[in-house]
Amino acid sequence: MTRARRLAAEALGTALLLAMVVGSAIMAGRLAGGNAALALLANALASGAGLLALLLAFGDISGAHLNPAVTLSAAWRGTMAWREAAAYTAAQTCGAFAGVAAAHLMFGAPAFASATLARTGGSLWWSEFVATFGLLAVGMGCAHKRPALAPFAVAAYIVAGYWFTASSSFANPALTLARAATDSVAGIRLGDVTGYIAAQLLGALAATAFFGWLHRPAATSAALAPRDQFCDGQDRHAV
């Protein structure tokens, strides 16, 4: 697959992901009648189902990272060149903002609006660390032995993450930055973005280091251990 097609897939996939996340949040807020739990459930299910569809659709083209944390993890492990990772990250970020604009326009709102929802504090940063660590753990764990199941596992984890984390599991730096441009319930104040992204990158780094160690055969049994690779050198089906 050509580089241009891979980058286009990452940009479009991330745009559709943001359109689903933000659009479903707006729709849920309108239809839930003030019931926050019902709105969150609707947002989580729509986001998880949409993510699964995107992972299956774009996995064979670009690996369906749709997330700079996943891309940087691949670069840290040496399965992707840093120059390629930078291009992926740029495509994902541009796509994320396009997705926010698409969601707003579907609901008759301006393309962009500065978020006013405060999301800051140690508990939320820790939530983002855990959410991102878990996301990478699920993606790398499945890719090691069960790559065909990875899209389903990652999507299921995201649905769960909406509920078990205090931050509703952003776990994606491009998504986090773009959500500063929506003044819906899905938004995050621009001033709070840095803390979220820092926690996400630390979570991704920790997961990469831990699972790199976990899946490395012991020196004494390397000759007998199966030589599994992470998806033949390119991460697939992770967000």
Can you describe what's shown?
The chain has 239 residues and is mainly alpha-helical. Helix 5 runs antiparallel to helix 6. The protein is 67% helix and 0% strand. The chain has one domain: Glycerol uptake facilitator protein, CATH 1.20.1080. About 6% of the residues have low confidence. It is built from eight helices and no strands.
Outline of this structure?
The chain contains eight helices and no strands.
Key phrases:
about 240 residues, mainly alpha, Glycerol uptake facilitator protein, 8 helices, about 65% helix
Q: What is the CATH homology-level superfamily?
A: Glycerol uptake facilitator protein
Uncertain ranges: 220-234
Question: How many E-type strands?
Answer: 0
What is the count of structural domains?
Answer: 1
Radius of gyration: 17 Å
Kindly provide the name of the CATH class.
Mainly Alpha
Spatial separation of the terminal alpha carbons = 20 Å
User: What is the beta-strand fraction?
Assistant: under 5%
Structural class: mainly alpha
- The CATH architecture would be Up-down Bundle
**Any idea of the CATH topology?**
Glycerol uptake facilitator protein
Oligomeric state as shown: single chain
